[in-house]
Amino acid sequence: MSSADAFELVGVDAGPVDGDPILRSIDLVLPANGVTVLAGPSGAGKSTLLRLLNRLDDPVAGEVRWRGRALTDWSPTELRRQVAMVFQRPPLFAGTVCDNLRVALPDVDLERAGHVLEHVGLGADLLEHDADTLSGGEAQRMCVARALLTDPAVLLADEPTAALDRAARATVEDLGRMLADSGVAVIWVSHDTDQLRRLADHVIVLADGAVRAVGHLDELDASTDPLVRQSVGAP
């Protein structure tokens, strides 16, 4: 992805329409490559920002752009095929793993379905298993596989390992790193500073509904702002 493929937020307010917005007057360009981690205290607006990027929410003021076009100029279906999202708790549908993959791509054949499972570290033999028999880590990886079936340019990840044990967390982190290295831009919300330091190519720190800092880890480690240093786990 080139810089022209980046997300841009211009004067964005977002959050409850009838109350104080969670995000206020946000002007921000998100990197179009690698893993960008959104960090900051609870309630800062990290998940709200992430949801704006594939129109699960719309801003109450301002504009969000991708590839130089306002998101409102994209149809939601077209946008979400290119900007996929995985959540803290993987949403599973009734039926087999293959049935779940076909939610994203109804005509996917067994060969491609098996290939995408193997790409995320699962065996093709799981295709006929009931989805509700998967472990938490397997379910999260299956949801990533489902997202990848549309060949997205961006993967949004909203604390995707928060509900997983250490081993499953490491597996999903490795998958995020692999995707970023293969050219899929990953935007990842995390409260875990150790995880941030393992994954982040770029960091955006949010606090009190505003952007507090943007940069690489070495830059933010040198910050004189205690909240920024705390948010990135600066030594």
Describe it.
With about 240 residues, the protein is of the alpha/beta class. The chain contains nine helices and ten strands. Strand 1 and strand 2 form a beta hairpin. Helix 3 runs parallel beside helix 5 and helix 5 runs parallel beside helix 6. The model has no long low-confidence stretch (mean pLDDT about 95).
Question: What labels would you give this structure?
Answer:
single chain, 235 residues, alpha/beta, Rossmann fold, six-stranded mixed beta sheet, four-stranded antiparallel beta sheet, 34% helix
Task: Please give a quick description of this structure.
Helix content is 34%, strand content 23%.
Calculate the terminal CA-CA distance, rounded to whole Å. Answer: 32 Å
Q: What's the number of helices?
A: 9
The CATH topology: Rossmann fold
Content of β-strand: 15-25%
* CATH class value: Alpha Beta
* CATH homologous superfamily identity: P-loop containing nucleotide triphosphate hydrolases
Q: What share of the residues lie within helices?
A: 25-40%
Structural class: alpha/beta
Q: How many strand elements?
A: 10
Strand order of the largest sheet: 6-7-8-3-9-10
Number of domains: 1
Major pleated sheet:
6 strands, mixed
Helix and strand arrangement:
Elements: E1 7-14, E2 23-30, E3 35-39, H1 46-52, E4 61-66, E5 69-70, H2 76-82, E6 83-86, H3 97-104, H4 110-119, H5 136-148, E7 154-158, H6 166-181, E8 185-189, H7 193-199, E9 202-207, E10 210-215, H8 217-221, H9 226-232
Parallel strand pairs: 3-8, 3-9, 6-7, 7-8
Antiparallel strand pairs: 1-2, 1-4, 4-5, 9-10
Helix pairs in contact: 3-5, 5-6
